[in-house]
Amino acid sequence: MSADCLFCKIVAGEIPATVVHEGERTLAFRDIGPQASTHVLVVPREHHEDALALATDAPGLLDDLVTAAGEVAKSEGITESGYRLVFNTGPDAGRTVFHAHLHVLGGEQLGLFGRV
Predict the structure, then answer these.
(1) 3-state percent breakdown (helix, strand, coil) of the chain, nearest 5
(2) Band of the pLDDT at 11, cuts 50, 70, 90?
(3) Which CATH number does the domain housing residue 77 bear?
(4) β-strand 83-86 against 38-44: which pairing, if any?
(5) HIT domain location, by residue (predicted)?
(6) Distance CA 17, CA 19 (A)
(7) Domain for residue 112, yes or no?
(8) pTM
(9) Domain span holding position 96
(10) Which residues contact 78 (CB under 8 A, 6 or more apart)?
(11) Structural domain includes residue 111
(12) Which of these is catalytic: 39, 48, 101, 103?
């Protein structure tokens, strides 16, 4: 845990959040500034600064985040219509909380994102 980390404080129950899924190593809660009808953040319970640190330091935990994101999508009823999983890494990506977190976005038609 990091004493000054917003998401660590949410995990510890010091700051309220609308929790939608709990796992042994993960916690998922609604984003307070949603960018889609469904916008949930999935975070590891332990502190890792970003996705790269998470993958390097605890690769199995990265799997747990993606699995939890799938459970969130299922419980939110967006598995059939589709959803997007996003990690923002670094200031140019718009990241403001330096605790690895995976965005689950869906529930509506999302704009095109890059080229496939």
Answers:
(1) 30, 20, 50
(2) very high
(3) 3.30.428.10
(4) unpaired
(5) 6-116
(6) 6
(7) no
(8) 0.93
(9) 6-45+60-106
(10) 38, 106, 107
(11) no
(12) 101
Q: Return the amino acid letter for 70.
A: G
Tokens of 59: 């690769």
Residue by residue, DSSP assigns 18-55 as -EEEE-SSEEEEE-SS-SSSEEEEEEESS--SSHHHHH
Q: Is 101 annotated in the active site?
A: yes
Distance between CA atoms of residues 89 and 72, nearest Å = 22
The mean of the pLDDT values for the chain is 93
Specify the number of domains making up the chain: 1
pLDDT at 13 exceeding the cut of 90: yes
Tell me, yes or no, whether 26 lies in a domain: yes
Instruction: Report d(CA 73, CA 104) in Å as an integer.
Output: 7
Instruction: Please name the residue that has the structure tokens 């496939």.
Output: 116
Give domain status of residue 90, yes or no. Answer: yes
